[in-house]
Write a structure and sequence with these properties.
Strands 1-2-3-4-5-6-7-8-9 form a nine-stranded mixed sheet. It has a three-stranded antiparallel sheet with strand order 10-11-12, with no helix packed on it. Helix 6 runs parallel beside helix 8. The termini are far apart. The longest helix is centred in the last third of the chain and has 14 residues. The protein contains twelve helices and twelve strands. The chain is of the alpha/beta class and 367 residues long.
């Protein structure tokens, strides 16, 4: 059961230190020393909303696996990299990643409300990482966007941009509104699930634009994250006219089984969030224990296709290491020998395409 059913004091602040995790009953006191080494390298933060979901009696708890530090994070594999998706390679000015012609990432802050143990930017975020953009750096980033009319969409990320105050978010949106060729603005965040109480009417109003389409992409990996409070926070966003998308990372021990993945996708759709991407885990340092294989991911996508609504289908994608772009890697249902095509149904039956004429049609000569 989650922590709320256990005899521990209520958690009223974000937990950042291993001794705080131990005091809250989330880790064993004997693990403090080694986890202090982990926390010195990779930031730790667990909000009250997420801490209350963790079941400390379950060593395989899927919420704990996402947020509680583990000693295995100190084990870096040869193929892991501090910048696994090549952000730095495509950063022409501070705060901008321009990998695709018509859109850019604008990383306004490198602070998050929580720090995921699988984060592909884990070397950049947190107190020991990059800082929030200084005013001059933000000016330069916005000037870069303004000077390139091919930029149609700005994706505001970080870090988590919704940790910024409504005043700062409103100021940023006002400046983007002034750039005529920016038609779409997208915010990537975890805030509605990990700190739903901060999704106020004032914050939601700050995200709106009079001239641009604004989307909010929520990162969620397990259905339990979509608590009643989280769903209410998402409703405030959607009811204000801001469509929401869902982004999920495929994680071993969190959502790498059909029941968990299907429950998450259904929970997102019930919350009026369209599943957008299911990400293959990146080669971030110390994350090997959470990565699945691509074959495992493709098999899971087959179960989604056969068992749940089309609304629940994300695109399974791989961010090619070293910054070569994101590509879909879902299973194929077609085989061809250069002529005829065989298509496999969601339930594994195989069919010719175009279909072969029936025996009766062949005998009668009917087309």
């Amino acid at each position: 059961m989650p922590r709320t059913s256990n005899p521990w004091p209520p958690i009223t602040k974000t937990l950042r230190k291993p001794h705080e995790l131990a005091r809250a009953g989330l880790i064993a006191p004997g693990n403090i020393a080694v986890l202090e080494r982990v926390a010195a390298q990779y930031a730790v933060a667990i909000t009250p909303a997420m801490a209350e979901l963790i079941d400390p009696d379950d060593p395989a708890d899927p919420i704990a696996r996402q947020f509680l530090p583990q000693a295995v994070e100190l084990d870096m594999q040869p193929d892991e990299h501090a910048d696994p998706v090549g952000d730095h390679t495509h950063s022409p000015v501070e705060g901008i990643v321009h990998r695709y012609p018509d859109r850019v990432l604008l990383k306004v802050t490198h602070t998050c409300a929580v720090y995921c143990r699988f984060c592909f930017r884990r070397e950049m975020v947190g107190p020991q990482g990059l800082k929030t953009l200084a005013p001059k750096a933000l000016d330069a980033a916005l000037a870069y966007i303004a000077g390139r009319p091919e930029i149609w969409e700005v994706i505001i990320t970080g870090g988590d941009p919704l940790v910024l105050s409504p005043r700062r978010l409103r100021g940023l949106m006002d400046r983007l509104v002034a750039i005529d060729h920016v038609k779409v603005v997208r915010f990537h965040t975890r805030i509605p699930t990990v700190a739903p109480e901060t999704v106020t009417d004032e914050l939601v109003a700050a995200l709106k634009s009079p001239t641009q389409a604004v989307y909010v992409a929520l990162h969620a990996n397990h259905a339990r994250e979509l608590t009643p409070a989280a769903r209410a926070a998402c409703a405030r966003i959607v009811d204000a006219g801001l469509p929401m998308l869902g982004q999920t990372v495929l994680l071993r021990g969190v959502n790498d089984d059909p029941d968990s993945l299907q429950a998450l996708m259904r929970a997102l759709v019930e919350t009026r969030i369209k599943p957008y991407y299911l990400h293959q885990g990146d080669f971030a340092p110390g994350t090997g224990h959470l990565r699945t294989t691509i074959a495992e991911g493709q098999a899971l996508m087959r179960t989604l296709r056969g068992d749940v609504s089309g609304l629940c289908q994300p695109t399974y994608v791989l961010d090619i290491p070293e910054g070569h772009g994101k590509v879909p890697i879902g299973p194929s249902y077609l085989e061809s020998d250069g002529g005829d095509v065989c298509v496999e149904s969601p339930w594994g039956t195989r069919h010719a395409y175009p279909p072969k004429p029936s025996a009766a049609a062949a005998e009668s000569g009917d087309d």
